[in-house]
Structure formats: structure tokens, C-alpha cells
Amino acid sequence: MRQAKMSLVAMATMLAVSSGAQAGDTEFKFGGYVKADVMFSDYSNGAPDSGYLSRQFYVPGTIYGDSSNGNQVVDFHARETRFNFKTSTDLDGHKLSGFIELDFMTHGDGNERLSNSYSPRIRHAFVSYDNWTVGQTWTTFQNPGALPENLDFVGAADGTPFARQTMIRYTSGGFQFAIENPETTVTPNGGGGRITSGSGMVPDFIARYNFKTEGGAKFTVAGLARQLNVEIDNLDTQEIAYGVSVTGVIPVGDDDIKLSATAGDGLGRYMALNYANAGVLDANGEIETISSYGGFAAYRHWWTDKWRSSVTLSGFKADNNEALTGGGVNKESYSTYVNLLYSPVKPMTVGVEYMYAENTKQNGDNGDLNRVIFSVKYVL
């Protein structure tokens, strides 16, 4: 009997937390969603192995596949499912909050043979006190509010800045200033495997301004400055990199247009999921930055209050110095999406999406991906 009473208390506590509970001056809230995807994919150069990253979602540069695997595959997974926990405390007029969120994407552990067991990973883990934010969350260089409503995990991956990392950020009105975790990726002289370096003492510096127009449109302008640093074996080289990104969400009646445009020298991992590196080593072992630019445009139309569709075009291009990088590096990537989504009740969405992507290397080799995604999503 005592065990049954304890179980009822635990269940009541969980239900209270899931809908939002309060203890003293602290409010607790549990959230997240359940999402199941079925993906039918056709890779022009052969499908990657089961469980590989591009079998979970579209990652530019990973669709070249393995010709020995065949071209057409189907994947069922619920790995995008996520949960989060938030607290908010009023301290004599000051606001203190904490947030942590986990999902099950990107891991190579687990398999599809028996239990489909995958480890959780940290997406966000940060604390905020008034205008200060410390911890891991979206890079200040990215505006996640401008991402289109696509069923693919990222959607418009080619044309958007995308990173989560640990930072110290200060917000004042529409302005945000941050120092964030540095990491350098470069191409060896003549080509070859990516060199990743966490050397150096200089953080990445990012400034951003968010503003609205009288018509309800929302825009952001962000600037990035960072030091590329490689200190590996006999290499000891540094170079300055920078970038600018502009995003917008423009209402058109009940519909909306979402836009993003980004360009810079040495953007590297900040763009297109690190489709291109930030730089390449020359014959003297010095870093030469790689210029790149990308963007996307998406239009969302509401057919009724329950039916809607989005059409998205996304692209990225890197200006490689082929004499240094060789011809095997990634050059340009494009993708397009069209979907139909239905929400019979507000927390639930079912939908279908078609996407096409094409990636081209510097030497002209290319690969393409056709994919149809069916999804069911329930917001907790």
C-alpha cells in the first residue's frame, strides 16, 4: 500500500511539473516533444550505411554515399524527440533562470537491429541572470527564429548559420554581445582529411542587433570576428576570420517569408554544418582563409487554420583556392523543400515533405539526394 501511495505522489509531481509548477518564488516547467519520422531516400551515388548521419537528417557534404550499398533506402526513427526542463526564480526584482534540453540525434551508438537504443545528448544547458546568459545554447551569430518550418531536422542547412556552443552573452534591448567557444577547421595543403584544432586563447566575438518594423517584420544583423589557430605537431599559425549575417521574418497577411544571407572569410563551421573549412594551409604552413556565402528563402502559406505549406530554397558556395585545397573539397551545395502540414489539434502536427539536395566538389564530382519525409509530432 505504501509503495502504491508513493507511486501516486510521484505521478502527481510529474504531472504538476509537466504543466508548470511553482515552489516559493521558483517556477518549474517541463517541455519538449515526441517526433517520429519515416524517410524514403534515393542517393545518386549509393546510400550511406545504416545509422550514418545523413540517414538521420540532411547534412551537406555527406550524401556521396557508398556505391556498394544501393541507392534507395527507408529509415524509421524517433531520435529527434526531445525533452527540456526550465526553472525561473524572482530574486528581489532580479530574474534567475536555468534551462537544459536533451535529444537523441547524431550519436553513432545504438543500432536498428533490436532496441534502437540511443544515448541522450545535451542541446542546451545554460543559466540566465537578468541580461546575462552563461552556458551552451544557440550561437549569437544564428537566429533560430528565422528557420523555416520544415520536417527535416535542420531545414535549409546549406544556407543558414548553425551552431550550439558555450558562451557568455550580454543582452541590452535589441543588442547582444558574446564571447563564445573557439574551434578551427582547416584543409591540409594539397587536400586531405580535415584538421580540427582547439588551440589558442582567443574566444570568438559576436555582436548582434534585433529589431522590428512598424509592419511587424523582424530582422537581425550579426557580426562575427574570430582567430583561426592551429598548433599541431610542427604547425603554429594564426589568422583572423570574420563574417556578417542578416535574417528576416516578414509577415504577409496570415503567411510569412523567412530570409537569411551570410558571407565572410573563414566562416568554416559556422555555415552549412561545416560543409567547407575556414581555411587551407599554404606551402609555408600558414592559414589562408576561405571565403564563402550562403542563404535561404522560405514562404509559408496557411491554407486554413489547420493546414499549411512551406516552400524553401537554400544554397551555399565556397571560393576555394584549388591550387592549395586540391579538387576533392566541397564547393557548393543546394537544397529545396516543399511540404504539407496538418494540425488537427494545436499540440499535434502530421505532415509530408519532399526535399532535393545537390552537392558539388571543387573537381566537379557531385551527388544528389531525393527524399520524402513523413512525420508525426506531438508537443508536450
Automatic annotation (TrEMBL):
Keyword terms, alphabetized: Signal
The record's listing under Pfam families reads: DcaP
Q: What range does the record give for the signal peptide?
A: 1-23
- Protein name, UniProt field: Porin
Species in which this protein is naturally found: Shewanella violacea (strain JCM 10179 / CIP 106290 / LMG 19151 / DSS12)
